[in-house]
Specification:
There is one protein chain. By secondary structure, the chain is mainly beta. Helices cover about 10% and strands about 40% of the residues. The chain has 2 helices and 4 strands. It has helices spanning about 35-40, 50-55, and strands spanning about 15-20, 25-30, 65-75, 80-95. Strands 2-1-4-3 form a 4-stranded antiparallel β-sheet. It is globular.
């Protein structure tokens, strides 16, 4: 975020999309569409747990941290359907 040019303020947003416990699917993303970024800041099924507190990470006060549950269905090679779920957090700039 510190490397982002001043000309990008209000035009792009940097965030960590953190998945837990499957950290391998986490990513750092630069969003160039405000409404798309806001889609990663849900208001339903929110977690009270803060991942920053769990791992003793000191986040700057200007960042948001929103945790939420996600579930989806997937089908294996035999046609059997499984439901998967994980906890995700968006940690990033506020979309002002």
């Amino acid at each position: 975020m510190a490397a982002k040019p001043k000309s990008e303020e209000g035009k792009s947003w940097v965030a960590i999309l953190l998945c837990y416990p499957n950290l391998w699917s986490s990513e750092v993303t630069v969003f160039f569409d405000k409404s798309y970024y806001e889609g990663f800041q849900p208001t339903d099924d929110l977690l009270t747990e803060k991942i920053s507190e769990k791992f003793n990470i000191d986040l700057p006060s200007e960042l948001i941290e929103i945790g939420y549950n996600v579930s989806w269905q997937d089908e294996d090679e035999h046609g059997e359907v499984y439901t998967h779920s994980e906890r995700r957090w968006t940690i990033g700039e506020k979309a002002l």
